[in-house]
């Protein structure tokens, strides 16, 4: 416990302590653009030595849930600037967790079958997607299709 609240150098990034906030997907971002709610959420946790963002889809197809903040288009960047500025104003450090959810998605999220390393569907779990038009909630992920080698750059 003595070391937990002491400074630490993480590969050249000085941290004020060794507390790390793990990523948590919150599904609270309309239009997938980070907003004031995101900035407030992360700023309130800036006393940790390091914050790791919720998973940030690397493409629209990489999203598996509704309302997740993206980082794959220029329109997302001003929102993330607000978040990082808010965290830095409180003396915090923040890293982005980049992701592609693979089979943990539903066709209603982006209108196509999810891609994964194979065709095996995810079972005994749910994703937050459209139950019906205008009504979101937990649904069983759609069965994926295998990603082809030539598609890797696209996703």
UniProtKB/TrEMBL annotation:
Q: Name all NADH:flavin oxidoreductase/NADH oxidase N-terminal domain ranges.
A: 3-108
- Lineage top rank: taxon: Bacteria
Example GO CC term: the record gives: cytosol
| Native species | Colwellia ponticola
Which SUPFAM superfamilies does the entry link to?
FMN-linked oxidoreductases (SSF51395)
A single Gene Ontology MF term assigned here is:
FMN binding
The record's section on InterPro entries has:
Aldolase_TIM (IPR013785), OxRdtase_FMN_N (IPR001155), Oye-like (IPR045247)
| Full protein name | Alkene reductase
Which PANTHER family does the UniProt entry name for this protein?
NADH OXIDOREDUCTASE-RELATED, NADPH DEHYDROGENASE 2-RELATED
Pfam families with a match to the protein in the record? Oxidored_FMN
